[in-house]
Every structure is written in C-alpha cells, then in structure tokens.
Amino acid sequence: MTEAARLSACVISFQEADRIGDCLRSLAFCDEIVVVDSHSTDGTPEIARALGARVIDRDWPGFVAQKEFALRAATHDFVLCLDSDERVSATLRREIEELRARGFSGAAGWTMPRCTSYLGSWIRRGGWYPDRQLRLFDRRRGHWGGHDPHDRVELDGPRGALSGDILHDAYRSFADHMRTVDRYTTIMAEGLHTRGERARSLDLVTHPLARFVRFYVLKRGCLDGWRGLLVAGMAATYAFLKYAKLLALQRGARTPRPADAQAGTFEGRDDRALTAARGEVLR
Q: Which stretches does DSSP call E strand in 113-149?
C-alpha cells in the first residue's frame, strides 16, 4: 500500500484581511500552510497566524518570484498553491485527499477548474470557466514561471486533471476590477517593453476586438447576461490598455519646451512626460 504523502499549502498575500481567512480555512486539511506576506498593515499576518499558518514577511519582488519563494519555503515536496482570493471547494478537497492517501502517484501535477464570482454571480462561460489552473504539483518537478503579472507553473512530467473547482473571489467591486486591469496592464507593458516587444497602432483595434468576440461570442459570454457583457468589455479594455501603454513607452518622445514659454516654466517636462507615459506600477 502506498504511504500517504505530506502536503504543504502556499499562499502569497498583501492587504487581504477580508479574504485571507476564507482561503486558509479551505486549506485546513493540508499538513502545513505557508503564507508569504508583503508587509500588510491591515491585519492579514495576524489572521493568518491565528489560523495556524507559518507567516513569512518579505518585500515584494513580483508575482513569479514571490510564489517561487513560497514554494521553496514549504516543508513538503507536494504543494498546493492558492492566491488569497481563492478557496478550495469541498469536491476538490476530497479529490486532493484521495490523491494524498495514494502518495500523489500517477502524475507530476494536477490541473483543476477555477470558477470566479463576479458582481454577485458565478461565471460559467465567457472565457472565465473552466479556466483550468495547475496548482497541485511536486515541486521537485515544477516551478513558477511566466511573466508578471501572469504567472504559471512549468512542470516536468505528466499532468492529471481534477474536477473540483477552485472558487475565486476575484474582485471586490467593479471599481476594483478596473484598478486591477490598470495595474496589470502597466506591469505587462513594462515587461513587454523591457523584452523588446513592439506595438503598432493597429494593435489598439485588432486585439481588443478579437478579445471581445472571443469572450462574448465564441466563449458564449452573452449567455451570462449583463455580467458577460462586462467581462467581455473588460477583456477588450485590458488588451487596449496593454498595447496603448506599450505604444506610449516606445514612442513617447520627449516634448521640447515651446519656443515662447516663459523662463522657469516647463522645467523637467521631459522627465514628467516619460513618467506619465510609463504610469505608476503598484503592488
């Protein structure tokens, strides 16, 4: 009989006092919970410790680097990785416990669907479901990769598939959704620019249009009513902002001071223009 394996849960957090409790309670079946927090001041670390987590306070280096640090800080080789706004469903917990009882044999990692709550309803179409995520794996055969803010697990070995959902409480409000899109597209544009990627003016039309059609029509987001329309519209907005910010970075030439400007005005204008083009990257 295969010996049951030990399982570590890994979570990263920042200012998640309103959501970290639900996340950690859903992980109570794990043998260990590691939370890597980025100096939260809202009580997130205290809540995590009260729920039995081992909390590590660490500067924010980016999504990929922080998740990889949490992964390597765990005690056990089999890990289950969640974000603070995610929870393990009852069905998924049963599946994971059955795998653990068999020593996590048969695969190097397992994917699972993720179901997102959006403005009071669970979204089951429109590109947001099943949205399969690889979150349970053997860290000896996998690591976090990708480009911030869109991290992913890179696995060396076969993958299994589970049917239970990760339940995702992604956005606190529509305004929170808009702020997240603005922040993430800035990070994406900065990363693309650093890696030498280029944007064309046409990208501001073709990519948003393709995203809207994919989410609203091809992925049947239209069946999710007004929420499906918002999801598709925000997907198009994400594409537009990403390429608009990249275009501004690569073409944001410094504006010379007007010839008839009074002395002492428009000083430092070049630096301000460049900063405005890049935007402010926030955690």
A: 114-118, 121-123, 133-138, 142-147
Residue burial 118-138, b: 16+ Cβ < 10 Å; e: rest: beeeebebbbbbeeebbbbbb
Q: What is the pLDDT of residues 36-68, one digit of tens each?
A: 999 999 999 999 999 999 999 999 999 999 999
Q: What's the pTM value of the predicted model, to 2 decimals?
A: 0.86
| Token code pair at residue 264 | 């002492």
Superfamily of domain 7-168: Spore Coat Polysaccharide Biosynthesis Protein SpsA; Chain A (3.90.550.10)
User: Which of 156, 104, 112 has its CA nearest to residue 133?
Assistant: 112
Could you identify the residue written with the tokens 């935007």? 279
CA distance 221 to 212: 10
Domain map of the chain by residue range? 7-168, 174-257+268-278
83-92: per-residue pLDDT in tens? 999 999 999 9
